[in-house]
């Protein structure tokens, strides 16, 4: 009986233990939510050569700067940007104080529930919405309002908190870069102050390393206390050519790694990869309709056309969400 047990049971136990051991080892390797393909290997190799002192491509820590877009790169941007839904809720909250909005666009479309019409005018109506709903608030009031909104807001499709819509593979990459003494910045077309509210808790990126679109601010005394107040005037549109401008303004040097997902990130990658020495540019391609969304050339948000056509010729890597990622969301849908 003992011999039978040894012959039949022990091999199965040994195989199971070996499988558990192999899986544990895989989970301990860098970027465990990435499939072991060319893009994962390219990232690992890039980080190795720029952080190894003996390497001809070694980069000292003060120059190890990585920049990530936010919407569509670090978390989901479909069906619309999260900040737009925040602004929609603000318009509805403020509507009783502004009866004229029921006739004025883009406010009237929002109050009718026609968000597509509200966006039809392009950038200018969106800027008007941002300035109107944010102007006059102090920085503290705005931050508190956004934090409160994130406590209860749910993604309109998944019905999950926005934290659950963050991409797990990107969180792993940010952590990996931090472990290798990179300074990681978010360079977003969205509102700088909006993203700063959640950047540290969601991504592990401190607020001062968030660059984004912004309105001008002023200094006032309110009830005897000094405050920073948002003004109804645009300061920076941190999109397309505005991204390198924002990088230069707030970082003061060229990054060595840039990751985006749309043609709005093209100039950021172009600027990053044009510098001397070893550099890398990557674009996330949303090609996974089953686990997220599939979109590129025809999309009202996150359009990716020029990047697909020119990126590979420029040496940029195209990350396939479908093929490169084992898991998409930090909390799967």
SSE diagram, text form:
Blueprint: H1 2-28, H2 38-51, E1 65-68, H3 82-94, H4 107-112, H5 115-119, H6 123-134, H7 139-152, H8 168-179, E2 183-191, H9 192-196, H10 199-203, E3 210-222, E4 225-236, H11 242-250, E5 257-260, H12 266-273, E6 280-285, H13 306-310, E7 317-320, H14 321-324
Parallel strand pairs: 1-2, 1-5, 2-3, 5-6, 6-7
Antiparallel strand pairs: 3-4
Helix pairs in contact: 3-6, 11-12
Short description:
By secondary structure, the chain is an alpha/beta fold. The chain contains 14 helices and seven strands.
Give a description of the structure.
Helix content is about 40%, strand content about 15%. It has about 325 residues and is of the alpha/beta class. The chain has a 7-stranded mixed sheet. Helix 3 crosses helix 6 and helix 11 packs across helix 12 (about 265-275). Residues about 15-25 have low confidence and may be disordered.
SS-based structural class?
alpha/beta
Q: Could you name the ranges where pLDDT drops below 50 across 5 or more consecutive residues?
A: 16-24
Which range does the strand content fall in?
A: 15-25%
Mean pLDDT value: 92
The backbone outline, from C-alpha atoms, is: globular
Number of strands: 7
Q: State the separation between the terminal residues, measured CA to CA.
A: 49 Å
One letter per element, helices H and strands E, the order comes to HHEHHHHHHEHHEEHEHEHEH
- Binned, the helix content reads 40-55%
Biggest sheet overview = 7 strands, mixed
Strand order of the largest sheet: 4-3-2-1-5-6-7
Cα-atom Rg, whole angstroms? 23 Å
Number of contiguous helices? 14
